[in-house]
Amino acid sequence: MRELMIEPQQGLAFELRAGEKLKVIDVEGGQVADLLAFRRDDPQERLSTGATIDNNGSLYLRPGDRLYSNRYNPLLRLVEDTVGAHDLIHPPCSPEMYRCQYGIEGDHPSCYDNFAAALREYGLPAILITTPFNIFMNTRVYADGRVEVKEPLSGPGDYIVLEALCDLIVALTACSVAESACNAYRCTAIGVEIWK
Amino acid sequence: MRELMIEPQQGLAFELRAGEKLKVIDVEGGQVADLLAFRRDDPQERLSTGATIDNNGSLYLRPGDRLYSNRYNPLLRLVEDTVGAHDLIHPPCSPEMYRCQYGIEGDHPSCYDNFAAALREYGLPAILITTPFNIFMNTRVYADGRVEVKEPLSGPGDYIVLEALCDLIVALTACSVAESACNAYRCTAIGVEIWK
Predict the structure, then answer these.
(1) Low-confidence stretches of chain B (pLDDT beneath 50)
(2) Whole-angstrom Cα distance, residue A89 to residue A49?
(3) Chain A partners of B144 at a C-beta cutoff of 8 Å?
(4) Total structural domains within chain B
(5) What angle do CA A79, A51, A63 make, to 5 degrees?
(6) What backbone phi and psi angles, to 5 degrees, belong to A117?
(7) ipTM beyond cut 0.85
(8) What pLDDT was estimated at residue B47?
(9) Using the beta-carbon criterion (under 8 Å), do A143 and B143 form an inter-chain contact?
(10) Is residue B145 less than 8 Å (CB to CB) from chain A?
């Protein structure tokens, strides 16, 4: 088993082989992890949260549901989930988001920049960054279309397990927002375990 | 005033200057039009339905709401809307979607291919295609996260008006799906009017 730790407001990328399991752990609780996935043999085929919503007919995922690519092929399967509240519709936080929503003009760590840096190590350009699977992000939707981001339901040690359905490059961040309920107003670490 | 007609299952791209109004008309009723928008001076900055949902706190748009870019800048403002039911979460239909959801292996017109062809005329690569603003697409969401695509609420002559907030390249399609409720099981034309 491989074990990795993503420090607060950091990100990394790694390979995940077909059949391998990926456990994403909310170490202290209340922390979101953004995930992107790319086919190892053709990274232009990548996780599409839109295709995932379309094929599952739902904004929320349940164990057994699959996550699909922009070419409507299954990339990952949700195997286990001790939380049950995640997000498929929000962009990764970015310098422009911090400027727009919080008036922060200077440097602020962000999932976008962390994705860009992590993907660069695999030769993948930032243009490939799209809407992530935002694990533990507790977005509630209402019948009138209203969307609300509440504090995560995850406590210390809560986790999900995903199974790779083909060879992937996965990028994962510990979300950088300390300014909102998204990460319960503080940024903490995300644990990773990978096994066959 | 410029007038354009998008024939059934076709698409086109055009320039829209800051301050110009764009009227998108459902000519016969029950027809979806997918819209993408790119900044004229830097097309890597483009419509992000995710940023639009994030900034408006809603999956549905109301008159006065703005549509934002991946850099969280406002690109368009919804000025008028005689329908009130549109979509910000579904990918454009694509050959792979028709294969996955309907088992159609051969050629089928698609919004994705129509976008790719229309953008090519402006030198924009297909990698820039993301989730469109799907005008008249009647996607209902429920509090349990379930998503359902129902027949459009638009009748003949119904329309929306958008105002450009900066110089844009806009790509627009008359959606190609005849196999589902999305376009009320038939594909018809979309009318366009542009004026200052």
Answers:
(1) none
(2) 7
(3) 58, 60
(4) 1
(5) 15
(6) -70, -40
(7) yes
(8) 98
(9) yes
(10) yes
